[in-house]
Amino acid sequence: MTTRLVVLAYNEEAGIGQSLAAIHGLGLPDLDVIVVDDGSTDRTESIVRQMKATVPLELLSHEVNRGVAAAFDTGLRHAAAISKPGDFVITIEGDGTNSLQALGPIISLLGEGYDVVCGSRYVPGGGYHGFPLGRRIWSVGANLVMRWYCGLVPVKDYTLFYRGYRAELLQEAFRRYGRRFIEAQGFFANIEILVKLSRLRPLRAAETPVVYAYGAKRSGSKMRVWRNLSEYLRFFVRDSRRPSRPRS
Ligand SMILES: Nc1nc2c(ncn2[C@@H]2O[C@H](COP(=O)(O)OP(=O)(O)O)[C@@H](O)[C@H]2O)c(=O)[nH]1
Ligand SMILES: [Mg+2]
User: Fold this and answer.
1) How far apart are the CA of 215 and the centre of ligand 2, in A?
2) CB 93 less than 6 A from any atom of ligand 1
3) Is the pTM higher than 0.85?
4) How far, in Å, are 16, 48, 57, 118, 141 from residue 51 at the CA level?
């Protein structure tokens, strides 16, 4: 049983080396690291290439930046394609804000048979450090809306990228949705993944606490709240007219 950690990175030269070294330093058995560099214009790619010489990892590169949704698609599609059904796939941010302490619990919950395990700031033990107030309000509101809209029990955090999946679930999603699995262009993709997975079949989902160490972030945020809001609206309009359903 292998766990594939998909690390999303765009212009993360400030911390990607340290993040990858910390992941390697955990010494977790059967952990494969896949970095998706989405056309970074800084030294992200060269830092990851250099690390490849000493630390086992795989690098997937987009020649030009295609946005975080395309990075999710590239990383998850590749991880699903090379995984055996019993394997696990975990997504994580490459900016060092997603505490590695949650990695062990995510892996053990997947091992217990949960299909999806969401890192969560909204369960006891989870939370934020240094997250700007405006972003906090936006995050709480967006997650309340998604709890109402998607209702995947017991998930309270739909927006954190830090999340684990059983590989067979992703394989089923790519098979049954094809290109329509990830249609969003930006940060909404992470939410769309959960909505579309929840339409495949009843899922066993779990959450595990994550402290979002936003103060550790050394790169600028690529999240644009207004662009993000327009993605929500586009999704709700599209989905209410023609809900995306998996092929049977
Ligand atoms: N591959 C890729 N990753 C991106 C892109 N935009 C953001 N990211 C990554 O997605 C994660 C979240 O972005 P970030 O700027 O940290 O947003 P925030 O944490 O919400 O402020 C980080 O690991 C980024 O490197 C992109 O266009 N492509
Ligand atoms: Mg971040």
Assistant:
1) 10
2) yes
3) yes
4) 10, 5, 8, 28, 39
